[in-house]
Amino acid sequence: MSRVKAEPGPVERQSAERRSAWWTVHVARYRHALQFVEGHRVLDIACGTGYGLSVLRERVSAVVGVDFDITAIADAKTRANVLLGDGRKLPFRNACFDAVVSFETIEHMDNRDRFVSEIARVLTDSGILILSTPNANHTKPIDGRPTNPFHIHEYTPDELSSELGKHFVSVQLMGQVLDSNFRVPPLWDEQEALAANGGRSRVLAWRALAKLPQRVGNAGSRWFWRHPLFPSVKDYRFLEAEVEEAPVLFALCRRGSV
């Protein structure tokens, strides 16, 4: 159940500091979630190596991680309490968490209703779920099959609202997008989409700059586009207006009483 990602493209095969593009886009979700989980007892499902647990610990009263990957949780245990477990059969009693976060998880599962049902079970009546998943409007599965070989199903916004609405009385969707000031996104698939829509020269220039020493590449990027090669966590936005076309859907769900 660990959030396995597709084989990265050439951009993600750069030096350690340049692989931070993936880290940044993921950590931005945890940072955005903090405002909703402050002071709560939080469960992070598919916590992976636990980088998000470190972020959550800054403001929550308690945090526990669960992951199916025994290698990943060995690293995560250095950051917080972590258990080996499956999100479709959580090892916790009913109503024991105020909030659950699970980012880039549901698209890997074949029994997704069971997963959402289990989350609802371990939440208090006033609990919240914060979840992210790729937007099928952006990734464009072929005949319903995701192009990412590690994904089983990718949701459109309407599909995700319907899935989550079976167990939550309120579902608010936002799109996670890079600030519009960034003329060239750092991730390979988004660069390919930009190139296909008339931005090939920008993409080629970005990739040439990415091969240079970081300081030189950033200077060139700032000269051309007024932004560094790689965005920071603060450069991501979570906007309801961007739900239909955003690369990633970010859902805030309130438990209430079903």
- Rg over CA atoms, rounded to whole Å, is 19 Å
CATH superfamily of the largest domain: Vaccinia Virus protein VP39
How large is the count of helical segments?
8
Principal-axis shape: globular
Strand content: 15-25%
Beta strands, count: 8
SSE string:
HEHEHEEHEHHEHHEE
Give the terminus-to-terminus CA distance. 27 Å
**Which CATH architecture of the largest domain would you pick?**
3-Layer(aba) Sandwich
The CATH class label of the largest domain is Alpha Beta
Low-confidence stretches: 1-19
| Helical coverage, percent range | 25-40%
Mean pLDDT, to the nearest integer, reads 89
Helix and strand composition category: alpha/beta
Number of domains: 2
Task: Strand order, main sheet: write it out.
Answer: 3-2-1-4-5-8-6-7
Describe this structure in words.
With 258 residues, the chain is α/β, with parallel strands linked by helices. It folds into 2 domains: 10-179 and 236-254, Vaccinia Virus protein VP39 (Rossmann fold, 3-Layer(aba) Sandwich); 188-225, no CATH class. It contains 8 helices and 8 strands. The protein has helices at 20-37, 51-56, 70-76, 112-122, 136-139, 157-165, 188-210, 214-225, and strands at 41-45, 62-67, 81-84, 97-103, 123-134, 170-178, 236-239, 248-254. It has an 8-stranded mixed β-sheet with strand order 3-2-1-4-5-8-6-7. α7 packs across α8. The longest helix is centred in the last third of the chain and has 23 residues, at 188-210. It is globular.
